[in-house]
Predict the 3D structure of the following.
Amino acid sequence: MHPLPGQFILVLTLGIFLCACRLTSDEILSSNITDVESISPVTSPELPAEFSGTIAYQHILNQAAFGPRPTGSTAGRQTGDYIIKALERERWHVETQSFIFKGVAGRNIMGKAGSGPVIILGAHYDTRPIAERDPAPEKRQEPIPGANDGGSGVAVLLEIARVLDVEATRREIWLAFFDAEDKGFIDGWPFLVGSRKLAEALTRKPEAVIVVDMVGDADQTIYFEYNSNRALSKEIWAIAAELGYADTFIPEPKYFIFDDHIPFLEQGISAIDIIDFDYPYWHTTADTADKISPDSLKRVGRTLVTWLERPKEDQPFTRSVLDTLQQSTDLHNVPKLDYNLDR
């Protein structure tokens, strides 16, 4: 992520998808896992049925075990493989979108399940190659660990994949893991390369896109993001309040964020960014797992699972979107957002 003129900030995404089989908590929590093949899918009555912040937190530790994960790196490729195997263990249908940008190989990953109108939940899994905001000048050319910025969104998505009742959503759910989000302003790269590749390749118009980024901070405060669809934001924040999270999901706008939801907004798709940008370790070498709270991951995950599983026809935002989609699902015929990054 990177601040842009006029208080624009770069952020990334999270996605959500479903699972059919289960892993035991002991298998997930016993050790750092760099090879998903070491996890055996099982059915266990002892496994928590609800979203577990503890299991999500272990996914952060497992990503961190690969080391920094910039696009094109060995660790980045290993992380992508880890995501694919974790989704397949939960019986999600996995698709990938490979691309080359400035000679570097990138790969978006999608887990898909269910049927009906499409909802995408996305998160980026790459990490920034330099820590340009580190307070120590000698560390500013080092890569960031990315426990929160890169790791937390992926962790929430993978735990949602384990617990989501996809049939209850009456939707086709895509868990989208974006590559090449966080290399902007380095070697001539822009931000959001992976999410833009996916948004521009869509042949169906999603009902909604929800990006989750940097949501693991122990001191969690999540505000409305100015560019995000306000009706959808209000709907999700209201569910957070119902669940007792009103002190961390604050229904007031605070930042303009340039994140992975932007390419979808540009395609005329309703999209929001769920992000806690009040994170002092952003783009520093101190973005490590000790700054993350399992409770923070749990709040975001349970809010999204509740929203997904609640009948959409009972929610005002989704009713209005369904009316629009009945008229046109052709992405070439929807109004495009006129989004000027220089404003």
In short: The first strand starts at residue 3 and ends at 4. The first helix runs from residue 25 to 29. The chain has a mean pLDDT of 85. Strands lie at 3-4, 8-11, 93-101, 104-114, 118-124, 172-178, 208-213, 222-225, 249-259, 271-275.
